[in-house]
Amino acid sequence: MMSLFNILNLGAGSLDAETQATSVTGENLSNVNNPAYARQRVDFTASTPLNTPVGQEGTGVTVTAIQQIRDALLDTQIQSEAGVTGSLNAQQTALQNAEAALAEQITNTSTSGSNSSPNGLAADLSSLFNSLQSLSTSPQDISLRQGVIGAAQQVAAQFNQDASSLSSLTTTINSSIDSDVSGANQDLSQIAALNAQIVQAQAIGGTANDLIDQREQVMEDLASKVNFTTSNVGNGAVDVTIGGVQMVNNITQTDSLATGFEPTTGRYLVKAQNAGTFLSLAGGSIEGDITVRDGALAQLQTSLDSLASQVTGSFNSIYSAGFDLHGNTGQNFFNGVTAASISVNSSLVADPTTFHASGTAGATGGNSVVVALAQLANTPNANLGGLTISGNYAQTVANLGNALSSVNVQVANNGAMTQMLTNQRQSVSGVNIDEEMTNLMQFQKAYEASAELITTINEMLQTVVNMKTT
Amino acid sequence: MRVSSSTFPDNFLYQDNLLQAEQNALQQQATTGLKFALPEDNPAGMSQVLNLQASSSANQQYRTNISDLQGQASSVSGLLTSLQAIVSQAGEIVTSADGTATPTEMTTYATQVGNLIQQALQLGNSKDSQGNYIFGGTATGSPPFTATTDSNGNVTGVTYNGNSTVNQVEISPGVTVSAQVPGANTSGTGPGGLFINSATGADLFNHLISLRQDIASDNTAAISTTDTQNISKDETNVLGQVSSNGVLLSQLQAAGNLASQQGNNMTTQISGKTDADLATTITHLQQTETAYEAALESSTRVMQISLVDFLT
Fold it and tell me: Is A139 an interface residue toward B (CB < 8 Å)?
């Protein structure tokens, strides 16, 4: 049989347990707005009973564990989804920048009287062909020749500008990759540090709930940058592997990410710092940047270069066979075969009388070269997919639009998916104020009851003590 | 499903964002009057609009070309009328200078023919408003006609320094016309020469020179046969040019009308693809605004209450 003092201990133990439970409730309430927090609850277990002749006698309650409510599968899904989100957002940003660089936007305030896109290469190409048509009616007119030269310079300038914008976009993307790699490395070192702390804390006993929450948050941040796989070591630490190379082994960081130019393709990619191998990634903003840079943006650059090359080539082959006002022939109209390098022949710019307008030597009033150049507007070009110069450019713009539009749809879908997973996680791990308040009332009542027990036992002890004095 | 305290705000923010984005898009449409503006909004539509705008711009240029050509053809028309007068006068002289004319009259006729030659020369060397020779074909560097004269100042020969090539101008895709007339064409094919045309036998200057010489030498036999036939060929040739010029002006007029109609069609097409239907847009906008207000109203009610408000 338990003595009065033992019952006192039972009461004290109960007060302790309810106090701990209240403390955990307090912890939950404080962290209600912490998105990384998983709610905790105490596990009450009856203390080891005493064996007595009349049966087992309970000795009260103890708190055996402070558990966090977390679904590991949901965590993995959310990490994976974070990777998809990171990748799509990176692609969307880059493609939007490329779309802005091309500056093709329909307005209804243009001077032509109908809706059009007045600022990009499409309008510049139209102006060039129109200026050639004007020149064809009066081929010796110097100001009309200057009109053609000016329009051609505008075309070249727009090509140059487009190429320059895309080139600096590539530089920006590479900087973004660098900064994401740096962020990922910080995450990796944090994970290793948290692993060490968790192992140490769990060696003493129980689960290191708050440290696990923190580590989960860091892992989600890492997932948004680069995809990785994990495996539990068993002592509470988690191994992290990226692209087949182990980055965190138990409590140490064994490798980190670095960037560099891959030798065979010249692409700027991510590699393992120590192992030296270039990694192939499947998710995260780094992968998104690489995909869009080497995919849609590279395609856009190639299309513009090809178009510039064909403009130069087709113009020159007609133009160089013509004759200027002095009877000279053989000059180029455009120089340069890439979008970055295309320019109007500087000697033509300096002297419009050197414009090779006529198709016949000695016939200074001839315009056949001008007409042939103007007719390039409607000439399908086998090297441009059988399309005309303007048609090919319209196609290039549409291709970029398709790429971006497709990413937009994926971003929207991904947003809905992420929202759903977040809701599910909140449902499992989120703190509900009403629930915590109810628990608080419960623990308070139990505390009051135990306090009442102690008061009663105290009075009983007092009675016992007073039994001697008389 | 268990709901946590942050589920409400999270979901509300997500839906709020979607509604605001939709409102923004509709607002843009209503303000600009356009269904879409960027390639990402409608890639295929953007491509079509870019192609249509190129065609529409080219169409306006064709109308300008047609107008320029009409100007050129009208200038030529005026000059042709003058040339007709010259050749017609030559025709009268060749009829009058028969055996019945007096020596005084014959002398006068010879002088008149000499004047006609000068007038024809001047006309042949006409320049346009840019200062380029009109009747030299594409060889516009030097005067088309140069004359050699004898010691008395009479023209004994006229040389043509131009060519018989004329400049074509496009008036619609693939269709070109020329408003130019070469001064001479001795090849027998291509555009007919105005003064010298081997296809019709016209050779105005030489014929006039021969006529003057025949009048001066009182060779009435030659005048009534060879000269009469020659001048007649010249008259026919000029008449043919006048007729061609008229045909060209009609053709240009018709082409201009057609281009104008096509231009309107293209504007309508572009408009159809890009203009927003304002009535529909504003209706959608109002619906979205209503949904937005409802979401805001209901969410603020729900988010404000919890058990804490009821515990004393």
Answer: yes
